[in-house]
Write a structure and sequence with these properties.
By secondary structure, the protein is mainly α. It is built from six helices and two strands. Strands 1-2 form a two-stranded antiparallel ribbon. Strand 1 and strand 2 (35-36) form a beta hairpin. Helix 1 (2-22) runs antiparallel to helix 6.
């Protein structure tokens, strides 16, 4: 759920920011008191909320898919403006802003590879347990 939420949020935010900049969306940037609010601010607030749930320790809430989705979405909002946070300059539309795209795609790729590999690692663990149990039954020493 986290991976899907990350990908959907990142794609949506990229589309919205291009629409605002290109003038083909009917709304503009979010601001408060005349200051532009970057979407990483919303991401930080989202992750803070997820953190409160995690610290509280409510098992039903911690394992809830909505919490996983909120975590993925919040992380995407922050990763999309990684270059801004790194240099503390609004470089979203510059060549340096490409770093945010690279980081976000890297996160998506790493999470995707991890999720794809889970069955492989589970099978490796199962086979290893089986070999260790078989060796123990035969009273053989297990190297290691």
């Amino acid at each position: 759920m986290t991976w899907i939420a990350f990908g959907v949020t990142w794609g949506t935010v990229r589309t919205i920011t291009h629409g605002i900049r290109g003038g083909w969306l009917p709304w503009g940037n979010i601001s408060a008191g005349g200051r532009h609010l970057h979407h990483y601010n919303i991401g930080i607030g989202t992750l803070a909320g997820v953190g409160i749930i995690a610290v509280r320790g409510d098992e039903r809430a911690v394992g809830h898919p909505a919490v996983a989705a909120a975590y993925g979405a919040g992380t995407a909002l922050i990763a999309d403006e990684f270059a801004l946070l790194l240099d503390l300059q609004d470089v979203y539309w510059t060549q340096q802003g490409r770093l945010s795209v690279d980081v976000s795609l890297g996160i998506l790729s790493a999470l995707g590879a991890y999720l794809t590999a889970i069955p492989f690692w589970h099978e490796c663990a199962r086979v290893t347990r089986h070999h260790i149990a078989s060796a123990a039954k035969r009273n053989l020493k297990v190297p290691g």
